[in-house]
Amino acid sequence: MKTSRPHSQSRRNVRRSGFTLLEVLLVLAILGVIAAMVVPNLLGRQQEAYVKATRTSISGLEGAVKLYASEHDGQFPEGNAETVFQQLMSPETDQQTGKQRASYLEKIPLDAWKNPLRYEYPATGNRTNPSGKPAIWSSGPDKQDDTADDVTNWAQN
Questions:
Q1: 117-135 tens-digit pLDDT
Q2: Does residue 138 contact residue 117 with C-beta atoms inside 8 Å?
Q3: Structural domain contains residue 49
Q4: What domain count does the chain have?
Q5: Domain of 145?
């Protein structure tokens, strides 16, 4: 004869699969704590990377302007960014050989925030460059000139 077990005892022996709500909430809480520690560090690093990328763009534009000056009797292109960029992007004819030179820039240089770099020569006001070079700068993430987040070629900031 079979012995019958009570109904509740057979339920205890059945294995459950899956996670309880408490286990899921505990994992989410742990992930939230980790994210709260990591995210601020990543955001600071991104801003540093943007500044470094912008400095590289400024250096590239400086190189193009110096090349222009070397081929034009040491004279930097004069004016603001709009006029100078158009001048640097236009091919010109070499007066000695009569051959057409490639343009100094292929496109308008942008900072890391996708805004055009700023240019001024001769530099004026607080943009005066002690080396006599043209002033080249980015307005930074706030897109406002002459603020603390500007990235320039005349001062380390």
A1: 999 998 887 776 767 889 9
A2: yes
A3: no
A4: 1
A5: 74-157
